[in-house]
Specification:
Blueprint: E1 2-6, E2 9-12, E3 17-24, E4 33-38, E5 45-50, E6 57-59, E7 67-72, E8 77-82, E9 91-98, E10 110-113, E11 117-122
Parallel strand pairs: 2-11
Antiparallel strand pairs: 1-3, 3-8, 4-5, 4-9, 5-6, 7-8, 9-10, 9-11
Length: about 120
């Protein structure tokens, strides 16, 4: 499966962006999906995850209440709505497809990764 993330860009603090992750080669409706990010000089970290049905979501503490993960299985696409962005949110954001049907936090359970999209938040 190929994952294509898009929607990144430059935004001022307090602004919003919506990331999209489109899949090809395989339907995403049978697996959980996640978003991760990697800031310059830091390790990749978990951002949000959603179960295959969309009824279960988990968020990193730093993004809870500001970010919303959702999915449209008919479009084979997962989204990350990011509101009230902070400079600390600056990173390359990656979408990934899990090997499990549920919402999964552990990076080790993700089999497929997109190429990443850069989000830059200016202060």
């Amino acid at each position: 499966v190929q994952l294509q993330a898009s929607g990144g860009g430059l935004v001022q603090a307090g602004g919003s962006l919506r990331l999209s992750c489109a899949a090809s080669g395989r339907t995403l409706s049978s697996v959980g999906m996640g978003w991760f990010r990697q800031a310059p000089g830091k390790e990749r970290e978990f951002v949000a995850t959603i179960s295959l049905s969309g009824d279960t979501t988990y968020y990193a503490h730093s993004t809870k209440g500001r970010f919303t993960i959702s999915r449209d299985n008919a479009k084979n696409t997962v989204y990350l709505q990011m509101n009230n962005l902070e400079p600390e949110d600056t990173a390359v954001y990656f979408c990934a497809a899990s090997s499990r049907p549920g919402a999964t936090i552990g990076m080790e359970f993700y089999s497929y990764w997109g190429q990443g999209t850069l989000v830059t938040v200016s202060s």
